[in-house]
Automatic annotation (TrEMBL):
It comes from freshwater metagenome. Residues 18-203 form the YrdC-like domain. This is L-threonylcarbamoyladenylate synthase. One of its GO terms (molecular function) is ATP binding. GO terms for biological process: regulation of translational fidelity; tRNA processing. It is an enzyme of class 2 (transferase). Its EC number is 2.7.7.87. InterPro entries: DHBP_synth_RibB-like_a/b_dom, Sua5-like_dom, TC-AMP_synthase_SUA5. It is found in: Cytoplasm. Pfam families: Sua5_yciO_yrdC. Belongs to the SUA5 family. The keyword Transferase applies.
Length: 223
């Protein structure tokens, strides 16, 4: 994948937006990597069901299989195709915060034919609150997406930063201007009877627990 000349596509007009979505979708179908905007930071994406594309994503970031990428989806109901044993408190969080900056680590469906890395039987799922990326996801299906940066570098919040770090590895860069959020998603492990916050991000513990406390539930923060 290294040595690809990336195509930067703006989304300022309806025509540009449609062309960018088309090009990004076609690149994914070809097994290539793309950079796309989200409501948090820019992401680098691959077809979640294309083993070679996911491996190329990890290689582009300089990341090993021990750090599998999350999966972005276009609708809350898609989580039931990817995950099992989703507890009630997790569904309450989905109802309140999807689309939005909340990633849930769930038990994955064992029948899925994919290889995201060393997931230990889990999958991290998020529905982003960004219309351009949601339209891409509607065409491609679930995408493996990680922040658009080299491991150890700050996450890209615009297309220029993403191109500087990953331009040689991606086929298409969808440019939608500055990220509206700029802060990564909050990650919550929902594989147990009580949820655990694995990474604090755009959603605070107080915001999350305000939804769960009326249900008699709450989250803890991993030490």
């Amino acid at each position: 994948m290294t040595g690809v000349t990336s195509e930067r596509l703006p989304t300022g007009t309806d025509e540009e937006r449609e062309a960018a979505i088309d090009a990004a979708s076609i690149a994914i179908q070809r097994g290539e990597l793309i950079v796309l905007p989200t409501d948090t930071v820019y992401g680098v994406a691959a077809d979640a069901f294309d083993k070679e594309a996911v491996a190329a994503l990890l290689a582009a970031k300089g990341r090993g299989r021990e750090m599998p990428p999350p999966v972005l989806v276009s609708a809350p109901t898609t989580i039931d195709a990817l995950a099992v044993k989703i507890p009630g408190y997790a569904r309450a969080l989905i109802e309140e915060f999807w689309p939005g900056p909340l990633t849930l680590v769930c038990h994955q469906q064992t029948s899925l034919q994919w290889d995201l890395g060393d997931t230990r039987g889990t999958v991290a799922v998020r529905m982003p609150d960004h219309q351009v990326t949601l339209e891409i996801l509607e065409r491609t299906g679930p995408l493996a997406v990680s922040s658009a940066n080299k491991t150890g570098m700050p996450a890209a919040t615009d297309a220029d930063q993403a191109i500087d770090m990953l331009g040689d590895d991606v086929a298409v860069v969808v440019d939608a201007g500055e990220s509206p959020g700029g802060e990564a998603s909050t990650i919550v492990d929902v594989t147990g009877s009580q949820g655990r916050v694995l990474r604090m991000g755009a959603l605070s513990l107080e915001m999350l627990n305000s939804v769960l406390e009326p249900l008699g539930a709450s989250l803890t923060v991993e030490d």
